Amino acid sequence: MASSSRRVTQQDIARMTGVSQTTVSMVLNEREDAARIAPETRERVLAAIRKTGYVADPIARRLAAQRNRFLGVFTYEPVFPAGLGDFYHPFLVGIEECAESIGCDLLLFTSAPVVDGRRRIFQSDNRLRLADGCILLGRWLDPEELARLLAEGQPFVSVGRRDDAGGPVPYVGADYPAATAALVRRAVELGHRRIAYVGEGAGAESHADRLRGFNAAAAEAGVTGAHVRFTEAREVMDELLNQEVTAIFVEEFADGAMLAEEAGRRALRVPDDLSFLALGDPTRPASTDLEFTGFRIPRREMGWQAVEVLSAILDGTGGELQRLLPCEPVTGATLAVARA
């Protein structure tokens, strides 16, 4: 079998099945003269194609140019995000606008199988090579798939910072540590000495980055910074009040809305009795009339710059392949002076 560190070719398929490269090409392209190929031979070739995940490279078919000027967009989310209110929509707008500005079309990869609630690039075959390069979207990206993309030399850029995966991963992300730390300092300036981070703070890099910024700023200010994972709003509020927390930093906007509603049921006023700070935009529907203090993620700009980085990779022009963009502070109305 061909090495997994390079692209599988028609010659590899031919060697595996004991036929000529011409035969492989005839089967792949379903040419009219393919009818003279024995059914068992045709099936043997198709089985090898399925086994290796071979995808015919359209770039090689176009001798007049080195690139198709097709950029792929792949999301690990089970349903491709397209709604105007969807968290991912601004990313897609930025991707589309930048692709248009450099004269590229977009291919949306939507047929990848869903395994354990997430799409997979490498499952039955890898269709990403239909594009010159690919933008990857998703809160969590599979490190093993990222490592394989790097090993096989497939051009891609992640929207969102990613840890190394056998090598540096090209990305355009949001500077969550700096944005979260800035909010902690604002709360401390208003007299908050017992603060809490509510959320996972682990798993996805975006969560870990937020908690890292929170912990660093709390330690620097010399205040008590608790970490509480969100379960039920009532249970979380019990724990926060037992710890005499006065400012709550929520990883997920919707969790903050539920906690604020729970605070209201206990006759606690926001922000007079309890302050809330949202560490980003809503990723799922949230019902609240509160204008949360926090920050916005530069989603549109992240999408735009991801295409810029991918274009630089494809053109071989170099430049910064890992970028962190500042988040936009939101004054809001849920942070006040700490109660005495």
Number of strands: 14
Tell me the radius of gyration: 25 Å
Integer tally of domains: 3
One letter per element, helices H and strands E, the order comes to HHHHEHEEEEHEEHEHEHEHEEHEE
CATH topology of the largest domain: Rossmann fold
- Unreliable stretches (pLDDT < 50, length at least 5) are 1-5, 58-65
Structural class: alpha/beta
Question: What is the number of helices?
Answer: 11
CATH architecture assignment of the largest domain: 3-Layer(aba) Sandwich
**Averaged pLDDT, please?**
88
Strand order of the largest sheet: 2-1-5-6-7-13
Which overall shape is indicated by the principal axes computed on the Cα atoms?
Answer: elongated
Separation, N- and C-terminal Cα atoms:
71 Å
Percent helix, as a range, is: 25-40%
The top-level CATH class of the largest domain is: Alpha Beta
Determine the strand fraction and express it as a percent band: 15-25%
CATH superfamily annotation of the largest domain: Response regulator
Largest sheet: 6 strands, parallel
Description:
The model is unreliable at 1-5 and 58-65 (pLDDT under 50). The N and C termini lie far apart (71 Å). Helix 6 (143-151) links the parallel strand 5 and strand 6 (156-159). Helix content is 38%, strand content 17%. Strands 2-1-5-6-7-13 form a 6-stranded parallel beta sheet, covered by helices on one side. A 6-stranded mixed beta sheet has the order 9-8-10-11-12-14, with helices on both faces. The relative contact order is 0.12. The protein has 3 domains: 10-54, 434 Repressor (Amino-terminal Domain), CATH 1.10.260.40; 61-174 and 300-327, Rossmann fold (3-Layer(aba) Sandwich); 176-297, Response regulator (Rossmann fold), CATH 3.40.50.2300. The chain is built from 11 helices and 14 strands. It is an alpha/beta fold and 340 residues long. Keywords: DNA-binding, Repressor, Transcription, Transcription regulation.
